[in-house]
Design goal:
Elements (H helix, E strand, L loop, with lengths): L13 H8 L9 H15 L6 E4 L5 E7 L5 E7 L8 H9 L3 E7 L8
Parallel strand pairs: 3-4
Antiparallel strand pairs: 1-2, 2-3
Length: 114
């Protein structure tokens, strides 16, 4: 959840996120926010010890930065609508940090369960 332009605030129960935002019915525009929460849940469940958020003074941001080996990080962007993906945040982060592996977590790439 965004809290007045400050760092993001995440809830680990998407039902509680909906309740806290006053959402009685899920709208299409709400899916991106919930997707980001679900991706964070998955990263935490994978046992990653540190997960960061990054934003610069120009308000370019990357959803999650995950430290890996020495001097290496993964920059992760969560996109519900990958066709609307904009590279501004990842490009700015790559200028700042050279040893980056970019990852896009895209709903269209998740295997569908019948």
């Amino acid at each position: 959840m965004r809290n007045g332009g400050k760092n993001p605030l995440y809830g680990f129960d998407t039902g509680m996120v909906c309740y806290a935002r006053g959402w009685d019915q899920l709208r299409t525009e709400d899916c991106g926010v919930l997707w980001e929460h679900l991706v964070l849940d998955t990263l935490i469940a994978a046992g990653l010890p540190k997960i960061h958020f990054w934003r610069d003074k120009q308000q370019r941001e990357v959803d999650f930065i995950v430290p890996r080996k020495r001097d290496t990080v993964d920059a992760i962007e969560c996109k519900w609508k990958p066709q609307a993906f904009e590279t501004r945040g990842l490009a700015a982060f790559r200028e700042w940090e050279e040893l980056v592996a970019n990852k896009i977590v895209d709903i269209d790439k998740i295997p569908k369960v019948a």
